[in-house]
Amino acid sequence: xxxxxxxxxxxxxxxxxxxxxxxxxxxxxxxxxxxxxxxxxxxxxxxxxxxxxxxxxxxxxxxxxxxxxxxxxxxxxxxxxxxxxxxxxxxxxxxxxxxxxxxxxxxxxxxxxxxxxxxxxxxxxxxxxxxxxxxxxxxxxxxxxxxxxxxxxxxxxxxxxxxxxxxxxxxxxxxxxxxxxxxxxxxxxxxxxxxxxxxxxxxxxxxxxxxxxxxxxxxxxxxxxxxxxxxxxxxxxxxxxxxxxxxxxxxxxxxxxxxxxxxxxxxxxxxxxxxxxxx
Length: 279
Ligand SMILES: [Zn+2]
Prior knowledge:
With 279 residues, the protein is an alpha+beta fold. It has a domain at 2-121: lpxc deacetylase, domain 1 (Ribosomal Protein S5, domain 2, 2-Layer Sandwich), CATH 3.30.230.20.
């Protein structure tokens, strides 16, 4: 666990809207949790702030306006073990930076120091024995510390199905998970651009997976897409406002389904009546 000791601000273009934006990250008093705001009004981060059903990013509906693509920042905050922070968004989208959580993690680690965790049982939330949303499947069981396991398949023979895991500590997050960049398959790009997404996209902030290999340079890890899916899952779990002390296993996770998992973990998913969710 770490505590922020000073503030910082990062600016950059948003992936989907392509506009310049910024986030100011400031310490919050111990026990305050994660506070998010835009336009000067702050509220506690919770899963119901996320717009249900978003694809390719996670969006928060804040009193001062919506903000999208918040998941890499949230993953870095949770992955670095920071429980109390004030995150102020300037503009409608968080900067995409290099498409990973590494720039956030580096700044968060430099602006924080390790602290002894508070005594008492870890906050776990509600267990989820089984959750299925479309192709995504999850289970979450309480444990002493957070551990994530992700299985993710990309339908290219050179990549295939990969399994990655993270044991909950900040060092391994910064080294093994945070550097994994967002990605899209080459054949998806036309549809993505046609839907008005990824207007700020480029090979500087995303990996494009071609049928024979990555475009624009090598992957940072042979299983980089699966690692990025774990990063996204971690960011979406942080929507709970705390990182649940759970062993979470996810197969083929995506943002909309992760959001449903966060609602269940926080104990406030009433279901959407589609019958896609079962426990
Ligand atoms: Zn992502």
